[in-house]
């Protein structure tokens, strides 16, 4: 099995991850992958160009990867998987299939659920259109969940790598070294020095606010100029960066089995991590070369 293309740090393979990962040539990676970061097709009612299943078929399909991923994870490795919301067909009610899929995936792989993250996209278009725009009986669905799982209750992680810049008021507080300590209405007792230590930044929350409206990156520019379909569900670079910084170290190995336009591989490359990406659609895999300064091939 040869990669469609490779770089100094990684390789992208063309095909179905369910068929590629069990191949003999991939067995060398068993127990060595530090992070599986991926966004598989969502269980949407409407069929998308990148392919998606619904209902029980989706649950079985996603769960089939649970054991396969576990074999490849390092002992302290992590899985971060995005599972979007879904709605019942022809009904203004939400489906529980995304949550059922997560539970089935977790139980099939015997994983620990380390934490739930919310990605809120403030610029997301109002959907579902029928219930939000036409009948006006719902508000727009503007977030998805990213689930952090591991076969280890304490996988490798360090929130010091993802600190936010202190607010102006916090900087002033540190400078003055004065704080109203004591007992709070919540019954927590805040010591005099609890908030006066400079930790070089504040700890982020599990709610990530990031729009997905970048239109001037090299990938989109190439697709538009060459009339090439671009992947419709691209993960923002900053979200991939957040989890790579949080859960891995330089030269760690990262896998994305549903690579799309290969944002994961690109971010891993610029952050000095090794990577393996798999994408079954040739049109998306080939055009993702542009992220690495490679010219997509006209014919393959």
Placed side by side, the strands forming the largest sheet appear as 1-2-11-10-3-4-6-5-9
Give the percentage of residues in beta strands.
Answer: 15-25%
Helicity range: 25-40%
Shape: globular
* Coarse structural class: alpha/beta
The CATH H-level superfamily of the largest domain is: Vaccinia Virus protein VP39
CATH class of the largest domain: Alpha Beta
The end-to-end span amounts to: 16 Å
Order of helices and strands: EEHEHEHEHEHEEEHHEHEH
What count of structural domains?
Answer: 2
Number of helices: 9
- Sketch the major β-sheet: 9 strands, mixed
Rg, Cα atoms, Å: 21 Å
CATH architecture of the largest domain: 3-Layer(aba) Sandwich
Count the E strands: 11
Poorly predicted runs of 5 or more residues: none
Q: What average pLDDT do the residues reach?
A: 87
Quick take:
By secondary structure, the chain is an alpha/beta fold.
Description of the structure:
The structure is a single chain. The protein has 300 residues and is of the alpha/beta class. It has two domains: 5-163 and 204-292, 3-Layer(aba) Sandwich (Rossmann fold), CATH 3.40.50.150; 164-202, no CATH class. Helices cover 28% and strands 19% of the residues. It contains nine helices and eleven strands. It has helices at 17-20, 55-72, 97-109, 129-134, 168-176, 218-225, 237-247, 263-270, 282-287, and strands at residues 5-6, 10-14, 33-38, 73-83, 112-120, 143-150, 182-183, 189-190, 207-209, 253-256, 274-279. The strands form two sheets. A nine-stranded mixed beta sheet has the order 1-2-11-10-3-4-6-5-9. Strands 7-8 form a two-stranded antiparallel ribbon. Helix 8 links the parallel strand 10 and strand 11 (274-279). It is globular, with a radius of gyration of 21 Å. The chain starts with a strand and ends in a 13-residue tail after the last helix. The relative contact order is 0.19.
